[in-house]
Amino acid sequence: MKVKIISVLLIFLLSISITGCSGREVSSNSSNSKSENTKAQNQSNKSVLEAYKAVLQNKAEFVDTDYYKIEMNLNDFLTNEKYREGKYYDPTLKETYKSTLKVTQFTMVNIDGDTIPEVVVKLSEGDLPIYYEIFHYMNDTVYGYLMSIAGTINLKADGTFCYDSHEYEGKMSFTQYTYDYELSKVASSPNKLFEKKDPVWYEFSQENIETELSANP
């Protein structure tokens, strides 16, 4: 009788041990899977930052989505060289593109809420900021979207835009050649948008580009 009881106890203890090991193995596999996914995401974001950096350093082209849907480098975009070439010239846009823009500042925020951030630069004519150029990475390509600041549009650190004295909040989304945004009125608490943090804007310099876009995401 004692032998049977001991045998039953041994079988019971052995089954508990096997179950515990199996549980630890499943947990370990799950942790490894999460770790690999995190590494893959970090590597993907790092590649995106490198693509943005190459565009800002004038080493790679981006797709200008404004009028002609063509690839150009940042310097051509700012000086309008591509638009002045006969192939792309449109007399009706002469006044629009007669001046040279300059980049004064840049920042990095997640505007459309996916896992890939956008880089936004401020474009000035003289000393007056008049446009945002929003760089969005999609299908292994950097796209540029021109957006008028118009004096009433403020970008926030969470990627939203504030319109009309902070009475409206907007969220943007991107397609290949266009962007869209949804507006919602914040009538119940207009001060809510004033309390939102502004993004950190960096002076547009080679040092800052190298530092901010080479950081681990």
Can you summarize this structure?
Helix content is 35%, strand content 29%.
Topology:
Layout: H1 2-56, E1 62-64, E2 70-72, H2 74-79, H3 81-84, E3 102-109, E4 118-125, E5 128-138, E6 141-148, E7 154-155, E8 161-163, E9 168-174, E10 179-185, H4 191-194, E11 202-203, H5 206-212
Characterise the protein shown here.
The protein is an alpha+beta fold. The chain has one domain (2-212). The chain has helices spanning 2-56, 74-79, 81-84, 191-194, 206-212; strands at 62-64, 70-72, 102-109, 118-125, 128-138, 141-148, 154-155, 161-163, 168-174, 179-185, 202-203. The strands form 2 sheets. Strands 2-1-6-5-4-3-11 form a 7-stranded mixed β-sheet.
Residue-averaged pLDDT, rounded?
Answer: 76
Structural class: alpha+beta
Spatial extent as radius of gyration: 26 Å
Distance, first to last CA: 66 Å
Principal-axis shape equals globular
How do the SSEs run, as a string of H and E?
A: HEEHHEEEEEEEEHEH
Q: Mind summarizing the main beta sheet?
A: 7 strands, mixed
Tell me the total number of β-strands: 11
Q: Which parts are unreliable, with pLDDT below 50 for 5 consecutive residues or more? A: 36-41
Strand arrangement within the widest β-sheet reads 2-1-6-5-4-3-11
Helical segment tally? 5
- Our count of domains comes out at 1
Q: Per DSSP, what share of the residues sits in E-state strands of 2 or more residues? A: 25-35%
> What percent of the residues sit in helical stretches (DSSP H or I)?
25-40%
